[in-house]
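Form 12-C: Joint structure prediction
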Amino acid sequence: MTEPRAGAIYDLGYRRYGGARLGRGHAIVSLYVHGLRSAFGLGRRTRAKIFPIGLIIFAIIPAFLQVAFGALTSEDIEVFRAEDYYGYINLALAVFAAVAAPELLGRDQRHRTLPLYFSRAFSRHDYALARLAAMVTAMFALTLLPQALLFVGNALAVDDFGGYFRDEWRQVGPIVASGVLVSAFFAATAMALAATVQRSMYAIISILGLFIVLSFALAPLLVNFVDNLAGRLGVFLSPFAVVDGFTRWLFGVEPGELAATADFAGGSYFLWALALSVLGCAFVVRRYGRKSL
Amino acid sequence: MPLIETDGLTKRYPGVTALDALDVSVEPGVVGLVGANGAGKSTLIKILLGLLPASAGRARVLDRDVAAEGAAIRQFTGYMPEHDCLPPDLSATEFVAHLARVSGLPRAAARERTAETLRHVGLFEERYREMGGYSTGMKQRVKLAQALVHDPRLVFLDEPTNGLDPAGREEMLDLVRRTGREFGIAILMASHLLGEIERVCDSLVVIDGGRLVRAGAIAEFTTGLGSLEVEVDGEADALAERLRGLGFEARGEGAIARVALNGAEPYDAIRDAIVALDMGLVRLEQRRQSLEDLFRADAEEEAAAP
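Section 2 - Result
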């Protein structure tokens, strides 16, 4: 040993680690939790939190208004209903997905952190799946959270809590099912685009641009002005119409305006959204499996 | 058991063969991987870590097959890439602790190991600041820390002194040497600077154009070599000729004569010869044959060969 240097009192040297190594599962969960936190900008500076938190508040406002309305007036009026809910906040969902997806995938590419992840004890597919799972879960904050608030709020607003629950418990199934599928649908499509477009600014613009152009321009044009099957099929190009279509189908209510014009069975929106979600996830996983570093 | 073993390892890119049927066996220790830029050093490391698939051939690391047991290998290896890989808006502590957890360490252990490892690489109060404001030296230290935080048995260091000033280079090499010698972690360090390798490593693998040139202990490369450089204020050629007449191996060029030191003791003879030739001695310097000289000589021989 060399003689101790000045300040060596602080130098405890390197110690070997003999503790537990929890392996792949732990690695995936760690990455998942980290992804979830970074989707909301947690553990980062305040600037990164403003957008996601703002969008969550925006998505919750209708539920909050409904609950407040129910609490202040004794009348049983439902302004915002569960099955219409995503119709009011679909832009917030799209913006959140467009901002969070490049955050989850793009950062590791931009800062070239991927080789550090891929040189650890899990596979590339594990990485992609952990990121996708984090994205879907993050979306829950804008889908299941306001729906839960709406449901519980309405139940508290009426005098008979148990009675409300008895009458409305059938809503729980559609609320959860639609919330999960809406989250998966937005997450998978946004992540597939974010995995393709490297620069986060371009990714945000292309995700948001695609959602808006397809939903507000292309699909309505096709459905309303092209009077044949091809035109009617255009409704499936609109993410917002698809979300509205399967949500209303799950709740068993009449389809929305565009879907009514297109006149397809409600279940077809459900299957289409499910297929796109699975395809989007598969695309991301496959892309990361082959990525050259 | 060899640390690393490759058998016909080949990596072809469109138009370029980065590794060309490489057969090499590396024993534990601090091993230098030397080659010019583009010799295939980074490619080899990436294949050994499973970051790149090989086009042909096989490789084993820590006695496990790279293609089949990549994740098992990576549990016990660390990697410090050549390029920047640190998110600028995170602190070193957060980033290294996160990677420690991803390496399989429980939360509390990850936090503890992060503090220890960052201290080991010489980051103290700075470790709570965002890494975007770090100097190159501090970034390199964080890169090394993340490669060591899960206490690997083997670390791959790709050009660890890249971009450092001479003092930073010195500190990094010292850190690498201590990590290898005192803590018993095997190291494969890629560098295009032979001088660095020579100072830190016990053994050496030289590749060029994706092929193995030589491999062995550093000592094997340099023993029995070395020379005296004699600078005079006259014709060194005449001095060299006189020394050759006395049975020494000597060569003169301009004002400098080089005398081989293969166990010979030419000092008195040089003094006498200079006196006899009525020259003045300007400088007498012992030059240990460095690896660079060796490879320069090799290259010259090769160029001379038909």
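Section 3 - Comments
The CA atoms of residues 151 and 168 of chain A lie 9 Å apart. The radius of gyration of chain A is 23 Å.
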